[in-house]
Amino acid sequence: MNGRHVGLAVIVAAVWGVNFVAIDGGLSHYPPLLFTALRFLVAAVPAVFLVGRPGVPWRYVLAGGLVLGALQFGLLFEGMKAGMPPGLSSLVQQGQAVFTAVFAAALLRERIGRRRLAGLAVAVAGMAVAALDQASRGGSAPLGAFALVVGAAAAFGFSNIITRRAAPPDALRWMVWVSAVPPLPLALLSVLTEGPRADLEALTTFSPGAVGSLLYVAWGATLLGFGLWGRLLRSHDASVVAPFSLLVPVFGMSSAWLLRGEALTWLSGAAAVLVISGIAIASLRRAPAATAAAPGWRADADADGRAGRDGGGPARRPLPPYAAGAAGSPVRPS
């Protein structure tokens, strides 16, 4: 990877890390479910009319939109609104790699090797330390908020499996279409649970900071982030690109400290070291043998069982970042 692409990968990680601070800012104005609905609405329109069809069966678009959009981000926004700090949230969301491995083993019959299992155990220990850190901040509400964000990480992991089964050919187009699914059900759920008066007040009261947060999470983290990430995956193997996502909680925690005054305790620092190093152990692999398909590429076999360009089958095409994540690389942002 050349210097320019390294810079782009770091920029994407920074955009996704700071996204948690933007979410925290938007939640000071919008009710969480309404904010989630608006985030996906702004990301989907008008982009959905410009990017072309998703290139996957519609059932996967619907499932991805409901699990990733409504469930994952609904839980994340509710947890942060309930008191989960943005920096710690960015770290706990990396637990999606653990849930992805569990779901892949249970649903796809993937084998978890000893090295990967050890790394995931270290990451789980880091999440336990993060829970202690959240508990030390006081009260039962923060622990409940922590549970919501862990639930969001679990939904992240399940959506990885959906995306892997869908195998969309373009990451940005996939995200735009998935974003078109959650706005309506989330808006209805917001009216029912958060109340029409709170929603109407948030929509009719102008706040430059809230609007800026909304545009950042919709256009910056979703459209710009996935557009650049997909470009990098088209140029490099997923095993080269995916490790840069380990920088997301680094940028998330540091930006929360700088911009929101979130305390960095020794517990949160220990949790960060354990989670990031555990996911790195589980995800970073040795270079494959010369005869093997490169990581991040799917070798589609032809009728004779031959695969890839050299075998006479169809040319390999890069997996999108979510599908690569299902194989164990921590590539999911928020």
From TrEMBL:
It comes from Streptacidiphilus jiangxiensis. Its main location: membrane. It is a multi-pass membrane protein. Keywords: Membrane, Transmembrane, Transmembrane helix. It is found in: Membrane. Residues 299-309 have a biased composition (Basic and acidic residues). GO terms for cellular component: membrane. Belongs to the EamA transporter family. InterPro entries: AA-Vitamin_Transporters, EamA_dom, EmrE-like. PANTHER family: AMINO-ACID METABOLITE EFFLUX PUMP-RELATED, INNER MEMBRANE TRANSPORTER. Residues 296-334 are annotated as: Disordered. This is O-acetylserine/cysteine efflux transporter. The chain crosses the membrane at residues 7-27, 33-51, 58-77, 89-108, 117-135, 141-162, 174-193, 213-233, 240-259, 265-284. Residues 322-334 have a biased composition (Low complexity). Residues 8-130, 144-283 form the EamA domain.
